[in-house]
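Predict the assembly for these two chains.
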Amino acid sequence: MYSMGPITRRGYAVWDRGIFPIDEFTERYAHVRSRMAAEGLGAIIVFGNMFDDADLAYLAGGHLDGAVIVSAQDEPRFISAGGSRELYFHKTLTWIERVDIAGPAGLAAALAKALQELSALDGPIGIVGRQSLSPKVNAQMSEALSQWSVHDADHLLADIRACARERETLAVRVALAIATSAVEAGETAFAAGASNAEALVEAERAARLRRAWDVRLLSNIDRPDLRPYEGASATRLSPFVLWVGVRYQGYWAETVNAHADPDGFANRALSAMESATGTGAVAGQVAEAATRVLDDASAYALSYGLGSAIGQTPAEGPVLRLGNRETLRAGQLLTLRVAARRGDTLAMAARTVRVQDGGCERLEPFKPSWAV
Amino acid sequence: MGTLDHLQQLREAALERRRDRLRAILQEAGLEALIAYGTGNHYLIGMNPAWYYSGLKQLGPHMAMILPAEGEPFTVITPQWELARAQERIGVGAIVACEPADFLAELGRALDARRIDRRRVAFAGGIPPRHITEGVSQLLGGAPHDGDGIASDMARIRDDWSLACTNKAIEIAEQSYDWMLERARPGMTELELGVELDIQIRRLGAEDNFQLFSGALHNRSVHRPTDRILQKGDVILAEITPGVEGEFMQICRTAVLGQASELQKEKFALLDGALKAGVAIARPGTRVDDIVEAMNAPINAAGYGQYTKPPYMRTRGHSMSLGSMDPEIALGKGQVLMEGMAFVMHPNQYIPDTGYMLCGEPVFVEADGARPMTRRYGTLDSIV
């Protein structure tokens, strides 16, 4: 769901090897290589930065800005677009052993040099994540790579990432546990007399203390609509509605506080969506299932969105909106969400599910011992 | 600390003046309009021209305020459900809310409805995504006139709303740092202490905060927090940057968990002297290269010249906020200080004897020199 992006997109900065050991990355790497071979690619370059790092984080791990080179024979290389001051720290955050900085010549020149150093390059180069580059770097990249055959290969990683691996699902469940702790902390604060804005801040504290990378929060601050925190406010609006999105080790989950749906209206719509979800189900029809329950409240709920696939970004395709003909695939993780307003009262609920044959499985939070 | 009502009054008046001045600039340049675009990627070293002219820190991925040389502005925002907040905040001109996929088409319709000659439109985008850069060029039938320079040249001279927000951010930063000094204890992790500091900043009214926070016996640099358990003797580094209504400002602080050693005091004093040397020569007309050289001079004289360059430091200072990135206090930038600029000056760097230390103050350039905006210069604090 859209939410106010904070300055600190990456708070906690430790690679959790319990969730993502090196063998997880080497498996991903091997999988990508086999897809490259199938498409006749000699190498791929995967770009990412703080704002757009799903593909990069999938291959390299977290908190990195720059590009990873995957080739048929050589070990992966990471070229950091960051400054040399941070290089030693960035090396602690990735499984990739060869980490260099782009340096004064820039990322494009450093990548061209790295490509020339490959032991073999049989086939064109696929580019993933070019949209994350500024216009200036894009132009530099076109020039620096002009001696090779280059084409966009975003589809390659998007397709691989569409269905979550077991450890990706685990990371989403940890993110869900952190988000759940956050909404509980918010509810506790509200019950103790805090305003909606104050309770939101306490929820953020709970999430960040539990090692969230990124936290997004919206509440019915001062108005019966979802708002970001924009400074102190003493207003209390009941029922207190708190939506929290959390990213842990690259993976997102979202949830809503239990008291946000006092008469179960939003949850009934969620259940209808859940019943319509399964392998081969059409995304638009899942959305329709919600609107049949929501009736007059549909337009409002649709404006906030009824959910989408979730993973390395908070909203991936397929999006659950009316008319979307995309079909759901087994193994996809979905966030289902309903925000319903009737009169001056906002109600909200959310669930996370994994698509499977014949239906879907509701994901429960996974709380590692440190998150208790 | 400025009240919200006070800030709101300042904001409304300042935004009107900004738009008035822009109209005059556009008319003088023979341009029909400026498209002030912003992404939702709010970052303290990246412009958001849409915020600068509208006062709305947007929630969605795209926003554009179109400011004609004559007449009222009009705004296209995303997503649709941002409309109510945008109307409350902007309060001027027509506002259309749409989904991100429809943004460029909606922008085109808005230009057509006002019969704006697309060949005479400037675009200020900050750091727009590739598809927006390409889409806007397509929409305008070629590369637009440069609007980033127009927006940045205006924003780098702070008006009273900008200064009020900046001052509030600095006050929150100083109060929160003092609060942190009272609570830091051996046994807390970097993460715990950093989060508590960050949350205190929110409680005091900042809507956001950029923060690097780490500690070690011998820091190689400052970084985001880890699980390191802080112990007596650790040197805590805190780069604290609250945001108020979109304006960010930074203080850089160093504290020892326990008593600071004489060596640590001596090396911190070296950086403090460098900072004060820079502040002493900063005034309208000063070249930023000269400030860098003034700051580096005592460090060079102490034999640490090689540490005044990367990877042992990053930069000697910079503007921040979502407005202008001018000035950056770095060699070769070719910039000159102007009255009304505000920026942080920070000789933060690695010293081999003690490790990395932070020492930085926000300053405001007045007619007769640069004035620190903090209550006091940072010191090497001891947490006992």
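Chain B touches chain A through 57 residues (CB under 8 Å). The two ends of chain B are 30 Å apart (CA to CA).
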